[in-house]
Amino acid sequence: MAEETPTLPPIAILGAGSMGGAIARGLSRSGLATAGVTATNRSREKAAELAGLEGVTSIALEERATGNTDAAAAADIVLVGVKPAMVPDLLREIAPVLRPGTLVVSLAAGVTIETFERILGDAAVLRSMPNTPALVGRGVTGLAAGSRADAGAVALVRRLFETVGTVIEVPEAQIDALSTISGSGPAYFFLVVEEFTKAAIGKGFAEHEARLMAEQTFVGAAALLEASDHDPAELRRQVTSPKGTTERAVAALQDAALDEVFARATDAALARAKELAAGA
C-alpha cells in the first residue's frame, strides 16, 4: 500500500498576487494544507479572487490592517510574496510575532537570504523562485536554504511547492541564474508561439486557425517530450527527414544562431537580477 503524503502545517501567504495566488490554489487543490492557508492582499478585489478556495482564508488589508501580523503569528510557514522593494518593511512588521521554529520563505525576486536573516534574527529562511505554470500545477520552483534551514525545513517547504509542480534544490548563488531559465522561460516560450502564429497568418491562415496550429503544436510537442525517453535533440532528428522541408527550416533557424540569441537573452536577464539584488 502506497504511503500517504504527510499534510502541511498552517501556512500564511503575505502578498498573494499572481504567484502567491497560484500557490494558494495549488495548496487548496492538493488537500494537504489541512491546517489552513491564510492569504493577504492589499485590496478587497484581490482578496475576493481567493475567497472561494477550500481551506483558504483570504484577508484584505484595507479592511483588516493587522492582517499580515495576524496571519504570520498563526503560521508555521510564512511565504513572503510582496514586491521586492516592500520586503524589508514587511519583515520588520512580522518579525516580533513569529513563533519559534517558523519557516519564512521568500517569493521575491532579487532579495537575498542575508536580507531576510538580518531582519528576522533566528528564523529559518528559504528563498524560492517559482514560475507562472504553477497556476496550472506545472510549475518549476528553485529552492535555496538559508543558514538556519535544516534538512527537515527544506523537505517541508519542498512538499509545499510540489503541490504546484516540480522543485529543484540549488545553492542561493544559482537562484538568479535559475530565474533566467525557468523563471523567465515561460515568456520566451510565449514569444516563440506568438511569432510562430504571425508566421502562419503570413502564410494565409485566419488568426484563429494560426493560433490553434501554433499553440497546439507546441503543447503537443511538449507532451511528446515529456512522454518520451529521448532527449530533445533526438526527437528533433526524428522529425527532420534528410533533404526534407523540416531540415531546410531547421537550417535557417540554426543560421540565425539561436544558441547565441538564447545565451544573450539569459545573460541579460541575469544582469538585471543582479541589479535588482543591488537595489537598482
UniProtKB/TrEMBL annotation:
Annotated keywords: Amino-acid biosynthesis, Cytoplasm, NADP, Oxidoreductase, Proline biosynthesis
Family under the similarity heading: Belongs to the pyrroline-5-carboxylate reductase family.
Protein name: Pyrroline-5-carboxylate reductase
UniProt function note: Catalyzes the reduction of 1-pyrroline-5-carboxylate (PCA) to L-proline.
Keyword match Nucleotide-binding: no
Lineage of source species: Bacteria, Bacillati, Actinomycetota, Actinomycetes, Micrococcales
EC number: 1.5.1.2
Record localization: Cytoplasm
Top EC class of this enzyme: oxidoreductase
Domain Pyrroline-5-carboxylate reductase dimerisation: 172-276
Reactions accelerated catalytically: L-proline + NADP(+) = (S)-1-pyrroline-5-carboxylate + NADPH + 2 H(+); L-proline + NAD(+) = (S)-1-pyrroline-5-carboxylate + NADH + 2 H(+)
Molecular function GO terms recorded: pyrroline-5-carboxylate reductase activity
Recorded metabolic or biological pathway in which this protein acts: Amino-acid biosynthesis; L-proline biosynthesis; L-proline from L-glutamate 5-semialdehyde: step 1/1
Pfam families noted in UniProt: F420_oxidored, P5CR_dimer
Main location: cytoplasm
Residues annotated as domain Pyrroline-5-carboxylate reductase catalytic N-terminal: 11-110
